[in-house]
């Protein structure tokens, strides 16, 4: 039977079946005759055959149509885009279009728990295991990723600049390639307009003149609002749109009710966030413990939005959340892990509205130590929405209309409980690297207004300590129940880094005892000795660089920075997938109802998840940092020739990296611009040393510089040195190795010698964006 659709036209399956049954010379005439199509139907038939060929279900060669050649079971393919549902689509890397026609499309099937090394995005090249699809809709093949190779070097991301005579130039967005423009012929523009952000294939590279490229995809205009963050989003392949199925699931979700929950609506929990926060995913409450056996102790409640109730394992929402791994925060936008219906509505603990939450109640002893804890699935109603400065002002004697009635019953007990837990925190003595965190404030047009360093308040510290307590309680509970979980781990520094730090401190006559067990207190003693000293910023930076990078793991090896034996992220499942896994595990361990961690989850499967979300976290941090660099470079582009004060933030063989005091912007002073003499790179001292004069430029030096060049698209700045606090003869040894004089590119990137750690701890307290969602608070905002 010849299957036809409602309009009497044969469907795709019928046409494909006819072509397979009649190998040989089958063309549009034969198909039209077989299905009784009129001349008026030829246009529709050609359109359908083109779609079938594009999907790889048939092969068109001149006037004949046949069954496509089969692909080998394993092959290398380039991921070229996404389909309407957001699924990745690939094409074979090696394909002869002249001989075989259009390359077939391969729909990438991603498991819910990708293995390490198999997380891929558009532009990646991967080794696939391929099988023919049974579906007649969509691509003819399904592919499973075996391994992802490094991104192809032949494709770059850049901004298209049109030329009057046609064609144009591509300005790469990568700092290290910003001066290597590409020529685009008029026939290779793919319709790109001046200012479009595009992906480009390099089609010819030569030793002299510009390399040539072909525009592969238009990604949007850099002249549009939020264009700067758009560059980072596409450069790092951060998913921007949710799959339609995930959006449908979010919109269909219903508010939580009392079914299966404890009623905590009378507990006066409050949220404390930045003033511009849109979501409020945690609330706190404290009261003196009435137990006579715990006189002077407190009961502290931390309630976290019950995301696991809405985002179930294996759903489209879960798949999108895992793919993203975390929310990404830019000064001008947020790319959330979950749709706004979940994060800004159902899971936002707004005042007066009943909301589902997972709460931990902790009994605190008078010495600040946690005596016990219990977890509860609750229905709560926030008593108030406060911001940090507002809460702090009330405690400092300046309450307003909102905080006045809350001061005695709610705020004073919270601060008293914090003073109590702070005793245990001080005794624990975690790593005390409280480096300032700058915040970019934007104008309505999305450009930089100013850069500020928010005050560090006790309100920030209060929330941070309560979040740490809750995270520890979650890890302890799951270990007690022998449930698999994802830990937040932070290894101790390597012996090599500790030895290098000791050598550096010796050049400053600062003692550093390396014997015995390595503890954060060892670093804290060094910092305490130098507090208020000129060398303090320098030593703080070097101590930071000596630390390992925090990550997620299904195996526990402790958290060195916090000086904790076990630690798991529990307090922000709206923006971190690790927290969602911990919530599900708690629901399963305590029999709290729906949304539990599946029984199929094991330490092995969670190990794969941990590896994936560690990668997405580093991806997010790099994208955020690059966006800030581009915004600041754009802000300073009209101040070429101006003088600034800053501090040397990095020393490499290429020159000195300087962080400006005014904006926190980073730029390079090329080594060849430091003077007429040669400078040696002294790695131990983090310095460049003049071979003739002994002049030393060292990490941490205060410098006056002049801005020479700014490249906003690449986020690169170039300075020249005017004066330095470090231009003195060095003590002790000098490096005697030969100086390397690299040729300076117009917009150089950071040298690999500058080990700027992506896991740099941020100032405790809730970081935030100028517009959009709150970034989190306390440990929720810290990389650790």
UniProtKB/TrEMBL annotation:
Q: Which reaction does it catalyse?
A: Exonucleolytic cleavage in the 3'- to 5'-direction to yield nucleoside 5'-phosphates
Its subcellular locations are: Cytoplasm
- Spell out the residue ranges making up region: Disordered: 272-295, 725-784
- Renumbered to this chain, the Basic residues biased-composition regions fall at 742-784
Q: Which HAMAP family match?
A: RNase_R
**Primary role:** 3'-5' exoribonuclease that releases 5'-nucleoside monophosphates and is involved in maturation of structured RNAs.
Q: What is this protein called?
A: Ribonuclease R
Tell me the organism's taxonomic lineage: Bacteria, Pseudomonadati, Pseudomonadota, Alphaproteobacteria, Hyphomicrobiales
Designated gene of the protein? rnr
């Amino acid at each position: 039977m010849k299957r036809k659709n409602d309009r009497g036209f044969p469907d795709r399956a019928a046409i494909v079946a006819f072509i397979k049954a009649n190998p040989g010379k089958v063309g549009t005439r034969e198909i039209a005759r077989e299905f009784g199509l009129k001349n008026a139907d030829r246009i529709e038939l050609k359109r359908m055959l083109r779609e079938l060929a594009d999907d790889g279900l048939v092969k068109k060669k001149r006037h004949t149509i046949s069954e496509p050649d089969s692909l080998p079971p394993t092959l290398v393919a380039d991921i070229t885009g996404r389909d309407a549902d957001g699924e990745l689509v690939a094409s074979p890397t090696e394909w002869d279009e002249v001989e075989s026609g259009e390359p077939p499309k391969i729909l990438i099937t991603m498991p819910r728990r990708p293995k390490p090394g198999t997380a891929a995005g558009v532009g990646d090249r991967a080794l696939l295991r391929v099988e023919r699809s049974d579906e007649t809709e969509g691509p003819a093949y399904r592919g499973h990723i075996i391994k992802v190779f490094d991104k192809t070097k032949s494709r770059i991301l850049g901004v298209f600049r049109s030329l009057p005579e046609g064609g144009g130039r591509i300005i790469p967005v990568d700092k290290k390639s910003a001066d290597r423009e590409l020529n685009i012929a008029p026939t290779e523009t793919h319709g790109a307009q001046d200012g479009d952000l595009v992906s480009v294939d390099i089609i010819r590279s030569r030793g002299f003149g510009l390399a040539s490229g072909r525009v592969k995809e238009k990604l949007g205009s850099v002249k549009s609002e939020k264009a700067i963050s758009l560059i980072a989003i596409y450069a790092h392949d951060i998913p921007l749109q949710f799959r339609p199925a995930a959006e449908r699931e979010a919109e269909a979700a219903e508010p939580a009710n009392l079914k299966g929950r404890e009623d905590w609506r009378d507990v006066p929990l409050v949220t404390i966030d930045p003033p511009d926060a849109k979501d409020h995913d945690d609330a706190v409450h404290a009261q003196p413990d009435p137990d006579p056996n715990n006189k002077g102790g407190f009961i502290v409640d931390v309630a976290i939005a019950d995301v696991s109730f809405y985002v179930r394992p294996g759903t489209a929402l879960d798949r999108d959340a895992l793919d993203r791994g975390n929310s990404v925060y830019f000064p001008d936008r947020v790319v959330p892990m979950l749709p706004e219906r979940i994060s800004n509505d159902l899971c936002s603990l707004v005042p007066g509205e009943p909301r589902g939450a997972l709460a931990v109640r902790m009994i605190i002893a008078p010495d600040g130590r946690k005596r016990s804890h219990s977890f509860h699935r609750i229905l709560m109603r926030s008593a108030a929405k406060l911001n940090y400065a507002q809460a702090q002002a009330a405690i400092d004697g300046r309450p307003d209309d909102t905080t006045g009635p809350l001061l005695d019953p709610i705020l004073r007990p919270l601060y008293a409980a914090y003073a109590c837990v702070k005793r245990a925190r001080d005794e624990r003595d975690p790593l005390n690297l409280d480096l300032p965190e700058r915040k970019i404030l934007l104008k309505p047009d999305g450009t930089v207004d100013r850069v500020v360093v928010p005050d560090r308040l006790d309100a920030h510290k209060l929330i941070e300590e309560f979040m740490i307590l809750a995270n520890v309680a979650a890890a302890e509970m799951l270990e007690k129940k022998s449930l698999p979980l994802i830990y937040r781990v932070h290894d101790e520094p390597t012996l090599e880094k500790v030895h290098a730090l000791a050598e550096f401190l010796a050049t400053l006559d600062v003692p550093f005892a390396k014997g015995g067990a390595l503890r954060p207190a060892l670093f804290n003693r060094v910092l305490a000795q130098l507090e208020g000293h000129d060398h303090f910023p320098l030593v703080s930076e070097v101590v930071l660089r000596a630390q390992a990078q925090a990550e997620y793991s299904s195996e526990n090896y402790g958290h060195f920075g916090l000086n904790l034996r076990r630690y798991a992220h529990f307090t922000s499942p709206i923006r971190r997938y690790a927290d969602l896994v911990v919530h599900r595990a708690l629901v399963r361990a305590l029999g709290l109802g729906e949304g539990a961690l599946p029984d199929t989850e094991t330490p092995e499967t969670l190990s794969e998840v941990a590896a994936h979300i560690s990668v997405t976290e580093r991806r997010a941090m790099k994208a955020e940092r690059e966006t800030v660099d581009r915004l600041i470079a754009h802000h300073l582009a009209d101040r070429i020739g101006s003088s600034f004060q800053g501090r040397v933030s990095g020393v490499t063989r290429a020159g000195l990296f300087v962080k400006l005091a005014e904006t926190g912007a980073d730029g390079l002073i090329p080594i060849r611009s430091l003077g007429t003499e040669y400078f040696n790179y002294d790695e131990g001292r983090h310095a460049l040393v003049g071979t003739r004069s002994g002049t030393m430029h060292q990490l941490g030096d205060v410098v006056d510089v002049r801005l020479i060049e700014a490249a906003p698209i690449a986020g690169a700045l170039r300075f020249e040195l005017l004066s330095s606090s470090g231009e003195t003869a060095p003590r002790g040894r000098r490096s005697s190795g030969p100086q390397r004089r690299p040729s300076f590119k117009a917009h150089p990137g950071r040298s690999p010698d500058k080990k700027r750690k992506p896991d740099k701890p941020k100032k405790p307290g809730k970081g935030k964006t100028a517009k959009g969602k709150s970034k989190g608070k306390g440990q929720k905002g810290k990389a650790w």
